[in-house]
Structure formats: C-alpha cells, structure tokens
Design brief:
CATH topology of the largest domain: pyruvate-formate lyase- activating enzyme
Number of domains: 3
CATH architecture of the largest domain: Alpha-Beta Horseshoe
Strand order of the largest sheet: 3-2-4-5-6-7
Number of helices: 14
CATH superfamily of the largest domain: tm_1862 like domain
Bound molecules: 5'-deoxyadenosine, iron/sulfur cluster
Helix content: 25-40%
Radius of gyration: 22 Å
Structural class: alpha/beta
C-alpha cells in the first residue's frame, strides 16, 4: 500500500483531518459529521465514499469535531500500533461525549471489522461499528443509534464495490485523486490481516472507473491513482462487448482519456504483475513509470512462510524484467523485519536483495503479530523486540543510502513535473512529482506556471528525499 512519505518507517498513524466537502456548502445540511482516516490510501478513498453517502442523507462535513453530531474514525488494523493510535484517539472523544451527550461516535474500517461487537464492549463510548462493505447502511445505523440502540453492521460482501457512488473529494488539492478499482484480497499472506477485514477480492465495473476518471479530468484533476490491494488481479467482464478487461487493458483505457491525465496505480503483487502491464506502461507516456512492488523479505524460506508464492530469485528476475522493458522505471517496496524464525543470515539476504533492487524508496516495518492470521496460528513470534528493531534500523539506513544514490544519479536529468503546490519551505518555489514519483522542488521565477501545469525541469541537486531543479520551459 503506497504512501507519499519517502523513506520513513511507514506511518500508519497518518491522520486524515476532517474536511470540508468538495463543492457543497456545509450550511445547507441540518447535521454535521467529522471524519478522521488512518492507514492505507484505500481507507482515505473509502472515507470519500462515506462522505458522499452522508451528504445524501443530510450530513455536511466539519473540520472541527466539537461541532459535529457524528464523529467517525476510519481505522486500520495492519499493525498493533495502528490500533493503539485509534484507541488513544477514542479516549480523547470521551470528553466530547461528556460535554455534548447527543454526539454519536462511529468506528469504520478494518478495526471495526476485526473486533465487531467486541468494540462496543471494550470501548463503551462507541455507538456505531461499520465494516468496509457496509457503508451504504450507515444512514439506517445512525437512526438506530439515535434511538439509543447500539448499531453494528460488519457483513462482508462478495459484490460490493460502491461503483455507483461518486466520492466527495475530501481534503483534496484538486490535482491528484485516488480511484478505487477493486476491493478485498484473496492472497492470504500469512502475516496480513487484510483478507479477514476486507474480505474476498472483487473488481469494480470498468465503465464506472473510466467515467469517474473522466469526470475528475473535466474538473481539473491531472493525476489519478488506481487503487486496490492487488491491482494486477483486476478482472472484469464487459458483457456489452463480450470482452474481458484485465488490469493492463484498464490502464490503457484510463490512459486514453487524455494525454494530460497522469495514471498511477498501487499496489502490485510481484506474482501478478504481467508483461502486458509493463508494455502498457511503456507505450503510454502518461502512465507513470513507477511501480510499488513489495518484496517483504529477501529470503526464500521466509517468503515461503509468509505465503508470498515467489522466491528470492523469481523476484530478482521480475526486477530485471521491469528494468529491461523500462530502464527509467522507479521501483519501491515494503519490507518486514524480524518475521517469525528469521535468522541473521536471512536478514542479510533482505539487505542484499535491497541492494540488488536499488529501491528508490521503501516502507519498512517490524513484524507485528495480528490475531487470527495464518502466521499467528502457525508460527511463534520469536524474534526479540530489540533484534527486530535493530534489523529494521539496518534496513532503514540502507534504504536511506539507496535513495540518496538514486537521487544523485538523477542530477543532470530533464524531467516533466506535474505541479501540485507551493513547496513546503517557500511560496517562491513549486513542488510536484516526476513520472517516477520523486518529489521535485524548483523556483517559480517569472514563468507563468500554475498548480496542475506540467513543467520541464532540469535536476541540479538533491537532498535525501527531494530533487531540486530549475524549470527550463513553460
Ligand atoms: N506486521 C508488519 N508489517 C505488516 N504489513 C502487513 N502486515 C504486517 C504485519 N503483521 C506490511 C506489509 C504490507 C504493508 C501494507 O504492511 O509490508 O505490504
Ligand atoms: Fe495483505 Fe498480502 Fe493481500 Fe497485500 S497481498 S493485502 S500483504 S494479504
């Protein structure tokens, strides 16, 4: 699952604020909701679907939870720390409920799905618990909760894709948008709770995806990121044309909307990314040359225990294939340190695979046992915490060096940058990304560029996480 912070131990606590709705005027609604999102981009995209459902039912968004009639937390279960953050947050809302007794508190997402009714027993102040496939029932659940009942719906679905719901873009910069193309995961990696919290894999109607992307483009957006737990297994049958739409075909269809619309995607499973996808990327300039290809471990034995279904050598061959077809492709990874029974030599294999792959960026974690997963049932979480942390530290240090090297290699390159905002440091500079997803900062000078424009930039310098340059055309 992709995030936008370079070379950082993945911040599952990244917090989405509550947001004003995209177009609508909050005052036209009789009630207000406040929503915070945690975890992966899919959760952030889901919060936009929830916002749309709530708008339709008379709730407008507020940025201030103290003003809200309904406070929602869209939660993540991927690691223990993510769940702890949500619990801490709920304790803060306890006070709110004391001051304003009618306020309803709802928990959405993976933690709701994992804990179900137990949530209501453990966290007495929670009124509503809704799993990721049950958001359409939220209005009814709110009514139940308003009448004093505890409201729970954690039913998982084999069909729900929310295809017909137009997400209300929350906290958007008006340039980049996430578009969910599938839900759930069938992979059963042994460490991962996602197949239990998000259910079986299902793909969304391709027409609804393309229409959403077209709509975004017409509204000024210039980049869409197609989201799924495992996008390469996207598969949808177009009964009108008697055609099967694979991920490669979907990518091309979205790329053809307009050359000025950039297309990204996340996440790819190494076992499923096909040559067809790689050739589609190569063929269309506007499909960004960047692949997030989580390896998890560099040891074949550990990969087997993780149920990743590929070996070290197989993964290396995949990296070689990507570089052969697109020598300029950016590649990033997810890495877990200290999985059950991992030896020092196996940890070294992870380091050497990182060197081989020359990742531009990685999200790095130490193993956190999740109740109910295959690993929790089958293997002992036997690597002491200090060993996990030391191994993670070595992985992070190596990634920092690899990122620095990758950035240094870009000095002198000329690249196209989609401008997203002023740079964090100065209103005199633009910040944007190149096709490889690297952040590029450059002076505005007197060039008449704006947010959403493409600039051709020569890279002149870099820091660990950012390329610095100068615009050479308008
Ligand atoms: N412990 C640590 N990291 C995990 N991830 C998933 N489950 C766990 C876990 N139990 C990581 C994987 C995955 C990313 C989203 O989170 O690297 O790719
Ligand atoms: Fe979890 Fe593996 Fe599915 Fe990713 S592919 S969501 S790590 S089970």
């Amino acid at each position: 699952m992709l995030d936008f912070v370079a070379n950082k131990v993945h911040d599952e606590n990244r917090q989405g604020e509550a947001f004003a709705p995209f177009k609508d005027d909050v005052n036209e609604y009789s009630k207000k909701f406040y929503i915070e999102s945690y975890g992966c981009q899919m959760n952030f995209a889901d919060s936009e679907i929830v916002a749309s459902i709530l708008n339709e039912n008379g709730f407008g968004a507020t940025r201030n939870y103290e003003d809200a009639n309904l406070v929602l937390l869209n939660t993540c279960s991927i690691r223990e720390k993510a769940e702890q953050t949500v619990r801490n947050r709920l304790h803060i809302f306890r006070q709110l409920k004391r001051n304003k007794p009618g306020t309803l508190i709802g928990v959405l997402g993976c933690m709701a799905e994992r804990l179900k009714e137990k949530f209501l027993e453990q966290e007495k102040l929670v009124d509503i618990v809704v799993g990721p496939d049950a958001y359409r029932t939220l209005p009814g659940l709110i009514e139940e909760a308003e009448s004093g009942q505890k409201a729970v719906n954690v039913l998982l679905s084999r069909e729900e894709t929310y295809a017909d719901i137009s997400p209300v873009r929350l906290n958007s910069n008006g340039i980049n948008a996430f578009v969910s193309i599938m839900r759930g995961c069938n992979n059963m990696c042994s460490f991962c709770v996602v197949p239990f919290t998000r259910g079986r894999e299902r793909s969304r109607d391709a027409y609804s995806i393309i229409n959403e992307c077209k709509d975004l483009f017409e509204n000024g957006y210039r980049e869409v990121t197609l989201l799924g737990q495992n996008v390469d297994s996207y598969y949808w049958i177009d009964e009108q044309k008697d055609e099967t739409v694979t991920f490669a075909k979907l990518l091309e269809k979205v790329a053809l909307i307009d050359p000025l619309l950039r297309v990204r995607f996340s996440t790819s499973h190494p076992k499923d990314i096909t040559d067809d996808v790689l050739f589609a990327m190569k063929k269309h300039e506007n499909i960004c040359k960047y692949i997030h290809l989580p390896v998890q471990s560099g040891s074949t034995r550990i990969l087997q225990l993780m149920n990743r279904t590929y070996t070290r050598e197989w993964y290396m061959a995949k990296i070689a294939r990507i570089r052969e077809i697109m020598p300029d492709c950016g590649i990033s990874s997810d890495i877990i340190a200290g999985f059950c029974s991992e030896t020092e030599e196996e940890h070294q294999e992870t380091l050497s695979l990182m060197e081989y792959s020359k990742y531009d960026m990685s999200y790095m974690f130490f193993y956190s046992e999740r109740p109910g997963t295959l690993a929790a049932r089958r293997y002992k979480d036997d690597i002491p915490e200090e060993v996990k942390k030391r191994r993670l530290d070595e992985i992070v240090k190596l990634q920092n060096r690899l990122s620095q090297e990758s950035n240094k290699k870009d000095i002198g390159l000329i690249c196209t940058v989609l401008i997203e905002a002023d740079s964090k440091k100065s209103a005199e500079e633009w910040m944007g990304r190149n096709s490889q997803n690297k952040v590029v900062v450059f002076p505005k000078k007197d060039l008449r560029l704006s947010k959403g424009d493409y600039a051709v930039v020569e890279i002149t310098d870099c820091t660990g996480a950012t390329l610095l340059g100068k615009a050479i055309t308008n």
